[in-house]
Amino acid sequence: MSNHILLIFPKIGNVNKKPDRPPLGILTVAATLLEKGISVTVLDERAELDFDRMLLKELQKQPVCVGISSMSGRQITHGLRISKLVKEYSSVPVVWGGVQASLEPRSTIQHDLVDIIVRDDGEEIFPRLIEALNSQCPALDQVRGIAFKRNGKIIFTDPPQPADIEKLPVIPFHLVDFNKYESDPRDHWAVDPKQILPIETSRGCPYSCTFCTESVRKKKWRALSPERVIHDLKYYLHTYGIRNFTFIDDNLFGNIRRGEKIVELLVQENLGIAWYTNIRTDYMAKADPAFITMLEKSGCKMLTFGAESGSKRILKMINKKATPGDVVAANRKLIGSTITPHFVTIRGFPTETRDDLMETFLLNCRLLLENKRAVCDSPCLIATPSTKIAEMCLGDQVKHFRLEDWAQILDVFKDKKPPWVLDETYEFIDNHRIFSAITSKTNRTFRISNFLYHLLLIIYRLNFRFGFDEHLSRLLGICLKKFK
What we know:
By secondary structure, the chain is an alpha/beta fold. The protein has 21 helices and 15 strands.
């Protein structure tokens, strides 16, 4: 009977560069396995130049199973390739978990290369799954939160219970080699050394934006106590000597008083760390100067805001429960502070018109002009599985999507117009892809790019209103090449 598990985080794209941070999801699962006395090896395909050889070497140890984590999009393709290798070189069960398996359990378990799936929180489910696999009897039926195949039939067990995250052990970051990770150049908030530790202090979100995974999971918002958060930060700081932390919570301030208490304790402890998280615009719009000062003293270097759109109509459609006015107010609150406000808007919503999109671009322009530290990104919409937005985008065909179809969901804007995007909107997006190139810059180059970004927006607006020569944008494109 084996007492060893192999957990794998596949590549997300085809970019061959060091990842910026370790894979927190599978490390969190590994923590509970180690606590149960189960040996764990973690392989991060993003960080290994000789991944296939390492995989085959690990398979020779005959682990109980191979666990593969996957998000929707390109990571599915890499996960399937890895699953195929496992099948070719061993008889070890392949277990899929993560966001994709949780949002689309049926299409995931239906794939020939997947034997078992784990749904939602895997920390308490996975140890029970290992016990069942080792028992050599039909005990899989008794493991909540999984689906598996028996004699060609797919069996779903009872729904999983949300994990009590306060009881979860600290993350075993020693299972990965920190030398294989380095912060992205865009993470200019990080201090030396440049490694970043991802930390999760809560799960869920009280809001239900229609494009977000949390609108599907509908789990109660759960959080570590502020004291536990500080305890864990001290442990990671002293154990690994890394001073940069990113709180990956869906909503760190899901309970405002708890979030403020964490900030207060960070100031009191004076840990000398740098940190970053996301925060809602409507909350920051109401923040007083004393709170912003506390954020600075606590080590907060950057905050990401989901601005989503400059169109009130689109914001209402996606149930954002915030306004462009909140976005502008949040940006102004941080003027003069040392905190970088990072705003994310989305292009390509269903029913989005050219006017809607122009309002979004003009909102970005205003943010950059009013706050010299502001950063704006504007990615294209992802039709996240099982969300209302996915239904609006894909219609009834989404019910028949296979795992391979979800693997291509990030690339729908790449070569052709997605079916849900209006012709006039797609033409505008396709003709102005230069926005994405501009907003990817950092430091001094980023500042220059922001200036050009403002100028480009203004020219687009003038052209849209008065018919200015569209070739002006080409001139700006030539200028931008000098700063790449």
